Queue: 2 jobs
Job 1
Amino acid sequence: MEAVLRQQIGKIVSLSDDEFQFVLSHFLVGNYKKHQYIIQQENPVPYVHFVVKGLLKSFYIDKSGKKHILQFAMKDWWITDNQGFYNKQNATLNIDCLEDAQTFYITLENREKLCAELQKMEFFFLQKMTAGNIALQNRILSLMSKNSEERYMQFIQLYPDLIHRIPKTLIASYLGISRETLSRLSH
Amino acid sequence: MEAVLRQQIGKIVSLSDDEFQFVLSHFLVGNYKKHQYIIQQENPVPYVHFVVKGLLKSFYIDKSGKKHILQFAMKDWWITDNQGFYNKQNATLNIDCLEDAQTFYITLENREKLCAELQKMEFFFLQKMTAGNIALQNRILSLMSKNSEERYMQFIQLYPDLIHRIPKTLIASYLGISRETLSRLSH
DNA sequence: GCATTAACGTGATATAGGTCACAAATTATT
DNA sequence: AATAATTTGTGACCTATATCACGTTAATGC
């Protein structure tokens, strides 16, 4: 399972065996069951998680009690409540498991120490964060310029593997539409 | 005007005079007139800009010809087409000036050289990118969970200074609503 | 200072998508 | 295997927001 993390980093910077062991020593391993929460609204956000296997979702509950999915995270994805984690605030999001999952997780302190000690890791995280920004900007433009059907088609195209692992209800919530509307689209 | 950039960086990492001069040497200065484009769809995106004064907007034109504002950028803000800039692709966005503007701009090569030479600048850019991510995630949740009026109120609260400098039509476009709907909200 | 263009407000009408309600089908749990 | 819980489909109806079409006012450029 270390290989998953190593490969992910290796796509951006090259690490010797020793360097990777050093990187790894900053992380912990966690195993979670379906339905288990790893981050909860109103609570501190001590870690960012790198998913090794399984599937998680982060979601926001608005003032009328409605859930909105911000992100799904499967193997190779990073997930946390960014606002809580980076600003050391309590979570406004919840994160739980859609499937049994395993993650490598790291504290902000350890991440910063790691970056200070091994500059290429800072480069790695910057690249990841940049890619995240691009994806988020595209999602905003998609929400603003596409209708429900176009957004659903785009989701299928972007994440073909997720379609079969996630209930339509949750995909609808991710796309910002009601489950009924999504149901009527899919033929 | 150098002071604007220095202060922006100084909020995150401390720089000696020499270090700041070194940082500065990687940037160029640009002056632009109202209505002038600094980035155009289908063209390369050689720079990311740090705004010293004036006001710019980035926008996407969808397939039906409708404009959607992705970002406004005033003093102290960074702006570019991220996808084009970081992935060395042609722009999918346009960026032009709402007011005469001045920016410090830098190429990706220079930015990477700067980060390699002065590690705290990499930390700086990572912090900025992280803050950007948080803002984008909040915007997505806002688009998904709030109605037009709530989004407009939130905009006023977040950017009180912009309200008087930007036509309502453009604010509507940023919020993802029609100008008529916004007009009917504002009493 | 005048002419052009952009911005704004507002009525009338259309529509995408939301909400509610119920039943069927599928998946989990013991 | 039986029971409970979740997911999905679909009809009927509702509503927020879009669109179209004006006229008015305010900026802007020459």
Job 2
Amino acid sequence: MARVRMSDVAVAAGVSTATVSMVLSGAGSDRISPQTQARVREAAAAIGYAPNSVARSLRTQRTRMIGLVSDTIATTPFAGRMLAGANDVARDHGNLVVLVNTDDDAAQERQAIQALTGQRVDAMIYARMWHRVVDAPAGLPADTVFLDCRPAQGGWPAVVPDDRRGGVVATRELVAAGHRRIAYVDAPRDDEVVASRLRHEGYLEVLAEAGITPDPALHVRGITDAGGGRAATEELFALPAERRPTAIFCFNDRMAMGAYTAAYRRGLRIPDDLSIVGYDDQQLIAAEIDPPLTTVALPHYEMGRWAMEVALGVRESDRDAPLLMDCPMIRRDSVGPPPTPAGN
Amino acid sequence: MARVRMSDVAVAAGVSTATVSMVLSGAGSDRISPQTQARVREAAAAIGYAPNSVARSLRTQRTRMIGLVSDTIATTPFAGRMLAGANDVARDHGNLVVLVNTDDDAAQERQAIQALTGQRVDAMIYARMWHRVVDAPAGLPADTVFLDCRPAQGGWPAVVPDDRRGGVVATRELVAAGHRRIAYVDAPRDDEVVASRLRHEGYLEVLAEAGITPDPALHVRGITDAGGGRAATEELFALPAERRPTAIFCFNDRMAMGAYTAAYRRGLRIPDDLSIVGYDDQQLIAAEIDPPLTTVALPHYEMGRWAMEVALGVRESDRDAPLLMDCPMIRRDSVGPPPTPAGN
DNA sequence: CTTCTGTGTTTAATCGATTAACTGCCGCGC
DNA sequence: GCGCGGCAGTTAATCGATTAAACACAGAAG
């Protein structure tokens, strides 16, 4: 591999390494004569010189590497979009990202933070795959950015999805279609995962603004997969006919998938007999089930970008309050007007 | 952050930096007296010393970082499992992975390879998200491992899924259940993506061994999503009754999802009226659709591990032939015996 | 003919470790 | 009493860049 050193270029061009360094880095290029500059550049190109970043980093105390520690890159299809956002920004600024997956294990997390600190990454991003409130792990450098989570203590830049607003948009979509009996198929209660609570707040807010009295029976919970969504939906169907919902807002797309199944088993057609809105915009589900699902998208790519921009210092941030990133509505075909009462 | 240098430890312990280095690295710990060793360790702990990997790398010419360049981490839910495998092995050997996503863009790929080379990563992994034959990009260091792709020219270690064998297992599952009219819902023809051809070979091989004459009408193609799978399946349903398949092997789970839709629209029940086998074991689909899908899993985690092990030199590899990694059968509920002819 | 002022380039220190080669000392054998 | 070997560490070179400070030379000013 590239065994060519700067001194080789210097010899080839008949100058000192200082000159080579100045020419190639652009610094003080006004102090070096054009002829010399050309000679240096030619020599460098001729012998195929590529700078050794390790040596440069040692001297400049900057590695141009950003550490990204995440709990689980493996088990969620979201991870990629966050990484992609961070990666794109890093690349555009000539930086590299060093990724560590900690499997949500405290010991591994500590080890990862140490390794990255030892490697002298310029900054760090601490990412979690589900919007949470976390305790900032010890040893994090001051220039750490929290991604899709926020530190309980505050004091760090952080970005999370605006889940309350997402709940608003989703519910409003249903209200706008004419629904009045709107259920919320929620995740199990968990105080660390704040998305569930926030989306519920948004849901209630819209009901209030539409003058709809919330029916507690329409707020059901289940584990956050298709099975849980199906079971929760079946609970709703068990209600007396006049209390049954004409529309369901599901905590996520997987639960929505379960709601589809429950509906079909009952002979209900979507969106004719039942409207459904999901959350997450999981490509594999939302775009592919039948009919395609109207859902609220999580801004993972944008959050990844934002976090990296702050980490690189090219964007200002507020250390006291996390940035709430907008969750856009993705309209597909699972929402329609409520069925007209029998015998229309 | 850690501004503590080795010389600070040396002063605190009243020895030279050479001694500190030897004690802390373990090398030549037989040359240093136990008392001195203890003194050094205490001093290091007391002032919170952490070695500077950049300086060490410069001296030792090893960075303990492995570069991983991949085409798309963003758009596939598989990526995570490959990364996780590679990451786990790297961690267990005290290495870090530097990830670059190139968006399948040649210019970005070149730039990434340069950046990683400049950063003096110890080895590189060149990953693609779909099993392919690729031209090895210029500039790749000699110790590069190909992951989920193999270089057309050969000469590098590479690992890919054993797609032919996957086709065999899938088809055999259907034959074993008693099916004789088995369709293959294939991806569009594409010579670079070799999975399609290989799985088809496996499919034909099993038909042959079972003494079934392949019916060309049962080999249909479509784009590799639910829509494509549904359209292709509907083609099959359009066949005269006696030529229609009782079982379908789908190129991937998304197409299988489309096959489900087509079946339900026709009033067919799975697996009673139609058996289906998918490929990929996409968690979000396979485990969650109704009924859960029997499918062939892609060994992404294992491939990621293997590639990293070879990159770190802890595993031997053959540079002439890619390793074919086994694709295990995941049995769920979408396969049953063929329906007995009407009026059983 | 000095002294001064800019240019253009070089010298050398530095970043923080690793490690080959060396030193000083003690004990032992003859 | 002298030399030799082994122990316990130290000295100093090295990795490959960056960069402040020094320097050499030419032309202008006095």
